[in-house]
Each structure stands twice: as C-alpha cells, then as structure tokens.
Design the sequence.
C-alpha cells in the first residue's frame, strides 16, 4: 500500500493526465465567458474570473501572460502566449515553497510538449503546467491550472479545457 502522501500525488497525476487528454469531464462548466486581449493573443475565460496581468510584451502593447483567478480562490488559470518564443518566468518552480511532483515530455517533428506538476510544500495547492514549444524555438504557449485539491481540479475540468481551446494567436 502506498503511503498517504504518495497516493495523493498519484491521484493528482492521474487527474492531470485525464485533464490533459480530454477524458470525460465530471462537471459541465460551460457558461458565460469574457474575452481577454493580450499583446499577441485573445482568449475566453469564465466571466466570474478576475484577470491578473503578469509579463508585459516586449514587442507590443499589452501582456504576454495573464492569470485568471476564480473569486473564491479555488482555482487559477494561466496562459503565456508571446509573439515568438520566450520564457514563462512567472510560473517557474519556487524552490522554497514548491516541490516537483511529476515531469514528462513528448516530442514530435514540429513541437516539444512538457507537462509538469508542482505541489506547495505546505499542501495548500498544486499546479499543473503544459508548455508547448516549436522545435525551432520560434513559438511557445504555456497553460497552467492551480488548484487546492483533486476535487477542485475535477470540478473545473471543463472550464479549463474550454479556456485552452479558445486561445487565438494574433499575427503581425
């Protein structure tokens, strides 16, 4: 039998894999949405969420990354979508506060996708990150979801999937 902490991590990893692969969602989270206009992208997000701009664009007015906070603090969505490649420095591991739970990578001829799950050392949250980068480094998109437990991840699964699918990259 797995120790409790390991079994909790296994459940989180399993839930994240299900989320990333679009397996049957548990809750229909579709509802009213707002549109956020970044420097080089637009994305739809749940209307009750609060956008918090983060990394400013170096090549245009606006921001390359933004957090979308659920008003009760249950979950947070994130997108990083610059004009070209870059580094999503605002969601990197914070060693004093977080630990790496899992990391996997998949490569195709055109892209590399990295999946990372981080956990707060105090047990207050988990973050699942999906980073997609072109093999030549010319484009990058990063999505993340921060949640307090597996039940919250399951409850917001549809909304997060919808959020990711609505990203539209702008051109010059």
Sequence:
């Amino acid at each position: 039998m797995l120790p409790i902490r390991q079994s909790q991590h296994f459940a989180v990893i399993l839930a994240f894999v299900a989320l990333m692969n679009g397996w049957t969602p548990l809750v229909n989270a579709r509802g009213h949405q707002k549109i956020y206009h970044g420097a080089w992208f637009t994305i739809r997000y749940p209307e009750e969420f609060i956008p918090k701009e983060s990394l400013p664009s170096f090549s245009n007015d606006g921001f390359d990354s933004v957090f979308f906070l659920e008003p009760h603090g249950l979950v947070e969505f994130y997108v990083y979508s610059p004009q070209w490649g870059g580094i999503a420095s605002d969601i990197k591991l914070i060693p004093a506060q977080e630990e790496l739970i899992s990391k996997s990578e998949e490569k195709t001829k055109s892209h590399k996708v990295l999946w990372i799950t981080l956990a707060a050392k105090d047990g207050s949250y988990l973050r699942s990150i999906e980073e997609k980068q072109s093999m030549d480094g010319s484009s990058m998109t990063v999505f993340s979801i921060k949640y307090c437990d597996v039940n919250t991840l399951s409850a917001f699964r549809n909304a997060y999937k919808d959020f990711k699918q609505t990203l539209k990259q702008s051109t010059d």
Summary: The CA atoms of residues 17 and 115 lie 9 Å apart.
